[in-house]
Specification:
Catalyzes the phosphorylation of the 3'-hydroxyl group of dephosphocoenzyme A to form coenzyme A. This is Dephospho-CoA kinase. Pathway: Cofactor biosynthesis; coenzyme A biosynthesis; CoA from (R)-pantothenate: step 5/5. This protein has a single domain, classed as P-loop containing nucleotide triphosphate hydrolases (Rossmann fold), CATH 3.40.50.300. The chain contains nine helices and five strands. The chain has a five-stranded parallel beta sheet with strand order 2-3-1-4-5, with helices on both faces. The longest helix is centred in the middle third of the chain and has 25 residues. The termini are close together.
């Protein structure tokens, strides 16, 4: 089984590309979604997050208080690093379990905004980059998250990899710029990866 990472900056369209692969029968692990699930459902992780950030990390309904937590760590890199050191190992353990459940698939995708090149502290065989121009990414994100200002979106972008850094880790690139057709690119890559597997 090939393990393929799929990444891209905010608004690049990673999710829509992943959904296309899922339609083709490819299992996809959504790291950010699973991280959200784990912060709410992993009791040990909840306990550790409360110890680090205080009880306000969870709202009155007992749900992870994402907005409040984001405000605490936004300008505090050290605190963000500590929070990530709690969450990331849980996500990696969860991923490993998911890999085992899907080991009969020719290849699987793990989607995440944070990613290294294949073989660089991970067991990926290759990395797919979903790429789009910055202007399009900002417009898409504003449409998807109307509560976010352009300044907020740009601030998120500055904390992610640059275009050059993303390009440097990619073995394959899918261009999602509203000009290149997505489906033929996904089908061609699916064919290639299925053959390699």
């Amino acid at each position: 089984m090939l393990k393929i990472g799929i990444t891209g900056g905010i608004g690049s369209g990673k999710t829509i590309v992943c959904k296309m692969f899922e339609i083709l029968g490819v299992p996809v692990y959504y790291a950010d979604e699973r991280a959200k699930w784990l912060t709410n459902n992993d009791l040990q992780l909840r306990k550790e997050i409360k110890e680090l950030l205080g009880r306000q990390a969870y709202d009155e309904q007992g749900q992870y208080n994402r907005k409040w937590v984001a405000a605490q760590v936004f300008n505090n890199p050290e605190l963000l690093k500590m929070l990530n050191s709690l969450i990331h190992p849980r996500v990696f353990a969860d991923t490993d379990q998911w890999f085992l459940q899907n080991q009969d698939a020719p290849y699987i995708l793990r989607e995440a905004a944070l990613m290294n090149a294949a073989g660089d502290n991970n067991d990926f065989d290759a990395v797919i980059l979903v790429n789009a121009p910055v202007g399009i990414r900002i417009a898409r994100t504003k449409k998807r998250d109307p509560q976010r200002s352009e300044e907020e979106i740009k601030a998120i972008m500055t904390r992610q990899k640059t275009e050059e850094q993303f390009a440097s880790i990619a073995n394959y690139t899918i261009i999602n710029d509203d000009e290149h057709l997505l489906i033929p690119q996904v089908l061609e890559l699916h064919e290639k990866l299925s053959t390699q597997a």
